[in-house]
Amino acid sequence: MRSRLLAPAIALLLCPAFAQSLRQEAENGGILVGTAVNPIYLSEPAYAATLAREYNMLEPEDAMKWYTVQPDEKTINFTPADQLVEFAAAHGMKVRGHTLLWGGHDPKWLSSRTPKQLSQILRKHIKLEVGRYRGRVFAWDVVNEAFDENGKLKDSVWYNRPGIGMADRGTAYIEQAFRWAHATDPQALLFYNEADAEAMNRKSDAVYAMVKAFKERGVPIDGVGLQMHIFDLNPDVNGIATNMQRLTALGLQVHITELDVALPVDENGHPLHPEDFALQAEIYREIATVCLQHSGCTALQTWGFTDKYSWIGWFTHKTKGAAVPFDRQYKPKPAYDALMQALRAPRN
Ligand code: XIL
User: Fold this and answer.
1) How much is the pTM?
2) Which residue segments constitute the domains of the chain, with CATH numbers given?
3) Between β-strands 297-302 and 253-261, what pairing exists: parallel, antiparallel or unpaired?
4) How far, in Å, is the centroid of ligand 1 from the Cα of 346?
């Protein structure tokens, strides 16, 4: 009888105190919690304070993309990326690099080159960027969004238009990018990052087949990034779990890299249906829980953290928004509370 009464009290005493931030909670649970960031907002005290308080990882939203780093052949610009790397170092945060090869979003000057030139340019770009941040960027999205919805490789400058000289060899150009990145920083974790390949579908099957073959052949790949932009308030959570299971079973890590849950909004960015906040929170909880149930899912990241600056607005012509855990005044939303609760829940 006595021990039955004492047990809960002892359990409470042994429990670490409830953490005050996502970051503390994530650190207790041994997982990374991150967000995409833009250095132009760091001068805003609430932005910088929330970022440093709540996250132990950041990822440049655009600052490490090719069009920022080398908009034309003669201009190299690492200033915005450096600012973020310095902010992260000052606040004990990890940096996820994004992204070295993203066909379709390249600056125009790349489109008028021969395969031989492109191969040299890509190699130089990877060496330059990965080399600059060696030891400071712990993981890279080496290649982003290479597959279409049918699981076919997308046409691109790097693959086949004209490509780097491997157009007839499928994913060989992707493999080459991983090999160059690994040769430049053997310590960095290397990820393939994809959109709309979270659950089971033709695209995620193609990603799975590629990374499985890479693992079997010893290509230096450490993980898969699942972007997780959710637009329909009805994600296939079981499918996401199944996909995560098969990827982690290969010995790969999974990072959730770009989670956000878009809500229908009015012209001022306010949700049309206030009850959507609760629905959104449930989706955040479910996705976080799936990640936390897989020990191979080692990072949970949202694409921005304040509704003031999330990309969803311009992407959807302002018909959707309010997608991330803090509102425009940096006040935590129900989605934030749901993430805290998911991080706090005991892990399997
Ligand atoms: C988006 C950024 O949020 C925007 O600021 C930018 O103008 C376009 O790219 N998938 C990705 C991200 O991998 O890099 C994209 O980021 C969002 C979709």
Assistant:
1) 0.95
2) 2-344 (3.20.20.80)
3) parallel
4) 33
